[in-house]
Amino acid sequence: MENIIQEVNSAVGGKENIKCCTNCMTRLRLTLKNDSSADRAQVKNITGVFGIIEADEQFQIVLGPGKAQKSAEILNKLIA
Length: 80
What we know:
By secondary structure, the chain is α+β, with helices and mostly antiparallel strands. It has helices at 2-11, 40-44, 68-79; strands at residues 18-23, 27-32, 51-55, 58-62. It contains 3 helices and 4 strands.
């Protein structure tokens, strides 16, 4: 999971570009400071990422059941 999070962090513009990180059952939900800094194609190409959804000012990364919570925990430690 940590490799995925490192790649996600890089692809969305680094920890400086992440305002908030939460999750639901299957998605890592990011609120970004600058949406245009996110490389959507790069995120989609990360092994373990099933897709992205942009809704309600969130950049949501679909990781599947059981992975989103652990990913959010790791990313929140990284951006703290």
